[in-house]
Write a structure and sequence with these properties.
By secondary structure, this protein is an all-beta fold. The chain contains no helices and 11 strands. The strands form 2 sheets. Strands 2, 4, 5, 6, 9, 10 and 11 form a 7-stranded mixed β-sheet that branches. A 4-stranded antiparallel β-sheet has the order 1-3-8-7, with no helix packed on it. It starts with a strand and ends with a strand.
Length: 124
């Protein structure tokens, strides 16, 4: 079992930055690929970014490429999402997720554990 706790959300103006953190507890963090998803009102859950256990493989949604950076610190059991040049359309609840094994995927159903989410609101 893995417990995931997100933090770092908040209200920011368009063009601003936020850094989300997701800290894991339970089983060995480095055994898991990690990802960020988001859910905006009236929309389906959307893949944002994913990172392999070694940070050797990283994937981003086209909508965030060049603006968001995913990273992880296995010594701290934490994955981060640095979000720059934020836009109002980035407003959503952001969730981190963990998937056993080494492969990356953007498919939410392949992730085994989920956090409770953290709200990000970008004002125009």
């Amino acid at each position: 079992q893995v417990q995931l706790v997100e933090s770092g959300g908040g209200l920011v103006q368009a063009g601003g930055s936020l850094r989300l953190s997701c800290t894991a507890s339970g089983r060995t963090f480095r055994s898991y690929a990690m990802a960020w998803f988001r859910l905006a009102p009236g929309k389906e859950r959307e893949f944002v970014a994913a990172i392999s256990w070694s940070s050797g493989n990283i994937d981003y949604a086209d909508s965030v490429k060049g603006r968001f950076t995913i990273s992880r610190d296995n010594a701290k059991d934490t994955v981060y999402l640095q979000m720059n040049s934020l836009k109002p359309e980035d407003t959503a609840v952001y969730y981190c997720a963990a998937k056993m094994g080494y492969g990356l995927t953007s498919r939410a159903f392949e992730y085994d554990y989920w956090g409770q989410g953290t709200q990000v609101t970008v004002s125009s």
